[in-house]
Specification:
The protein is an alpha/beta fold. The protein is built from eight helices and six strands. It folds into two domains: 65 residues, no CATH class; 141 residues, Nucleotidyltransferase, domain 5 (2-Layer Sandwich). A hairpin with a 4-residue loop joins β2 and β3.
Length: 267
C-alpha cells in the first residue's frame, strides 16, 4: 500500500540534493529497515507540525528510531553541516558571494514547555523560557545561533553569539542591531579582531515616530523569526537540552532553504 504523502515530504529533486550529504549506515550493523529519506521526512514533519515525538503518524518510521537519528545527527553536528551547505547554495542562487559583508543581530524570547533544562525569566517580555540569539545576513539566512536562558541580557547574549566571529565570517564588516545592544558592546565588537575589523551600528527608532515603524535592516531579522514561527515546534521551546533547541532551528531553516532552492515559492 502506498504511504500517504505530506506537504513536508522531500521531493525527488530535494532528496537528490541531500542524498550524498546524509551520513551512511555504520559498518557491521543490521540491514536498514527505514531509508534515510523516510527518517528525514519524519523529522521535517515533526518540526513543521509541532507534534510530540510519540505522536508521529503511524505511516512514518517509529518515533524511537526517528528520535535516535535526530539525537545522533545533533550530537555529531550534521544538522549544522547541512544547514551551512544549503545556505551557501541559496546565496549562490541569489547571485551573492558565499560569505556576507553585513549582518543583523537580534534575539527572540520563547516560553519553555519543559520544567527541566536551562531557562530563565525575561523581565522585559515577561517570558519564562529561553532566548534564540541569531546573526542573519541581508537575505535573512542564519549565520550564527545561540540558545540561552531568557534572563541573560541581550548584550551578554550577543557576546556569546558574536565571539565566534573572531575566527569566522572574515568577510563580515558591519552588523546592525537595535538599541538594546548599545553601550560597551559596540567597543567590544570593534576590538574583536584586528585584520578584518567589525563595526556594530545601532539602528535607532526616531523620537518622532508614532505607532509601528519599519526600521532599516532590522526588519530582516524579524522576518527570519517570522519564518521560524511557521514551524509549530518552534512556537515554544519543547526541548530539554539547549543543543536540541538549536538543532530544531537549523532543521526548520534547512527545510525552508530546500524549498527556496527548488522554487517552491518564497520562504
Amino acid at each position: 500500500m502506498t504511504r500517504k504523502t505530506y506537504l513536508t515530504d522531500l521531493s525527488d529533486a530535494e532528496w537528490h540534493r541531500l542524498a550524498r550529504l546524509v551520513p551512511g549506515p555504520k559498518p557491521g550493523g543490521r540491514p536498514l529497515k527505514y531509508t534515510r529519506r523516510a527518517i528525514l521526512n519524519a523529522i521535517f514533519y515533526l518540526v513543521r507540525a509541532g507534534c510530540p515525538w510519540r505522536l508521529l503518524p503511524k505511516d512514518l518510521p517509529p518515533w524511537r528510531i526517528v528520535y535516535h537519528y535526530f539525537r545522533e545527527w545533533t550530537q555529531s553536528g550534521w544538522w549544522q553541516h547541512l544547514h551551512d551547505h544549503l545556505r551557501g547554495q541559496v546565496r549562490l542562487q541569489e547571485g551573492r558571494h558565499p560569505q556576507p559583508t553585513a549582518g543583523i543581530v537580534d534575539s527572540q524570547s520563547v516560553k519553555t514547555a519543559s520544567p527541566t533544562g536551562e531557562r530563565g525569566f525575561d523581565a522585559g517580555k515577561k517570558v519564562v523560557g529561553r532566548k534564540r540569539h541569531v546573526l542573519v545576513d541581508t537575505l535573512g539566512l542564519v549565520w550564527l545561533l545561540v540558545v540561552h536562558p531568557a534572563n541573560l541580557q541581550d548584550r551578554a547574549g550577543a557576546r556569546l553569539l558574536l565571539a565566534g566571529l573572531a575566527t569566522s565570517c572574515l568577510r563580515l564588516r558591519l552588523i546592525w542591531a537595535d538599541g538594546a545592544y548599545a553601550g560597551a558592546l559596540v567597543k567590544w565588537v570593534a576590538q574583536l579582531r584586528q585584520r578584518a575589523p567589525l563595526r556594530l551600528e545601532i539602528v535607532k527608532r526616531s523620537d518622532d515616530a508614532r505607532g509601528f515603524v519599519v526600521l532599516p535592516k532590522r526588519w530582516i531579522v524579524e522576518r527570519t523569526f517570522g519564518w521560524l514561527g511557521r514551524s509549530r515546534r518552534l512556537c515554544k521551546d519543547y526541548e530539554t537540552q539547549v543543543l536540541h533547541s538549536q538543532a530544531m532551528v537549523l532543521i526548520a531553516m534547512s527545510h525552508l532553504m530546500l524549498k527556496r532552492l527548488h522554487n517552491k515559492g518564497t520562504f
